[in-house]
Design a protein that fits this description.
By secondary structure, the protein is an all-alpha fold. It is built from two helices and no strands. The longest helix is centred in the first third of the chain and has 31 residues, at 4-34. The protein is elongated and about 40 Å long.
Amino acid sequence: MRGSTNGSMNGSTRTMGVLTVGGLVVVTAYTVALGSNGWLWFGWVVLGLLTIAMVVTRS
């Protein structure tokens, strides 16, 4: 059985994944509507790398 610590870690990883995908949608919509912004894409890449790091350390 999983302990409460594992359940909360799983929830935080899932939340981070949802934020990453949501961020991708927002940055893409911004790019389509107003043009590309390198800082937004850079921020999304950093968020994606943090999410991947969370998933890897979770395994």
